[in-house]
Amino acid sequence: MDQVCIQIRGVCKRYKSAQEDSLSEVSLDIMQSDVFGLLGPNGAGKTTLISILCGIIPVSSGDVRFFHNGTPYSNAERKSRIGFVPQEYAFYQELTARQNLDYFGAMYNLSQNRLKERREHLLEVLGLEKAADKKVGTFSGGMKRRVNLAIGIIHQPQILFLDEPTVGVDVQSRNAIIRYLQQINQGGTTIIYTSHHMSEAEEFCKNIALIDHGKLIAAGGLQHLKAEHQVENLQTLFINLTGEEYRD
Ligand SMILES: Nc1ncnc2c1ncn2[C@@H]1O[C@H](COP(=O)(O)OP(=O)(O)OP(=O)(O)O)[C@@H](O)[C@H]1O
C-alpha cells in the first residue's frame, strides 16, 4: 500500500525584506518510493519549497512532517535520511572527485569501509572512475553534475531532493543521471526533483505538482492530470495552466 513520506500542510514562506509570499498555503502529500516532479516557471517557489523540506530555511507558517513506512520521524533524524543535490555545485573545485566524496562522506559519519564502498560504487556507476583523482575544477559540466549527484547520495538517503540535476549537461550525461536515478528509485529511494525540461520530467515522474507565484495550481498523477485537462503532453499542460507570459 502507498505510504505518505512527506506531509506538507499550509506552508507559507515570506523571506525577510520581501513584500510578498514566495510560498502561499502549499499543502501536498508526497508518497514513499515516488518520483515526484516539482514544476513551475522561474521564480515559482520550487527551490524555496525544496529548501524548506531539506531543513535549510524555516517556514513562515505551516507544517512539514516526515514518515518512513508510516512511522513519523523528527527533524533531527531528517539529516541522515535525506539527500540534497542543489542547483549550484556543492563541491570543492580544488579537490579531486575521490577527495570530495571522502570529505562529504565523512560529514555523514560513514565508517571508513562503508565510505570506500559507496565512493568506489558511485565513481563507477556515474562514469567518473578514470577522472577520480583529477581536480573537479577541471571537469566538464556533465562530469561536475555527476559529482554533485554522487555527493548528494554518498550516504544512501531514503529521500533524495534534486534541484535541476541535469541543467546544462549534454544528452549523454543527462541519460546517465536519469538512468541512475531510475535505478535507485526502483531500489526504494523516493525522488523529488525540479526541472524546466518538460519532456525529461514527463518521462521520469510518476506524480507532479505545478507551482506558480508561490501557489499550488495542480497536483497528482501525471497521466491523470493530462487526461483531466485533455492535453497530450506535460508541456501543453504546463503552458495551459501557467500561461505564456515571461516571469522576470
Ligand atoms: N533569499 C531570498 N530573499 C528574498 N526573496 C527570495 C529569496 N530566494 C528566493 N526569493 C524569491 O522567492 C520567489 C521564489 O523563488 P525560488 O528560487 O524558490 O523559485 P524557483 O521556482 O526555484 O525559480 P527558478 O526556476 O528560477 O529556479 C522568487 O520571487 C524569488 O525572487
TrEMBL record:
Superkingdom in the source lineage: Bacteria
Example GO molecular function: ATP binding
Segments forming domain ABC transporter: 6-238
Keyword Ribonucleoprotein attached: no
Gene3D superfamilies reported for this sequence: P-loop containing nucleotide triphosphate hydrolases
Cleaved signal peptide residues: none
Upper lineage: Bacteria, Pseudomonadati, Bacteroidota, Cytophagia, Cytophagales
Keywords per UniProt: ATP-binding, Nucleotide-binding
SMART domains: AAA (SM00382)
Name listed for the protein in its UniProt record: ABC transporter ATP-binding protein
UniProt source species: Dyadobacter endophyticus
PANTHER family: LINEARMYCIN RESISTANCE ATP-BINDING PROTEIN LNRL (PTHR43582:SF2)
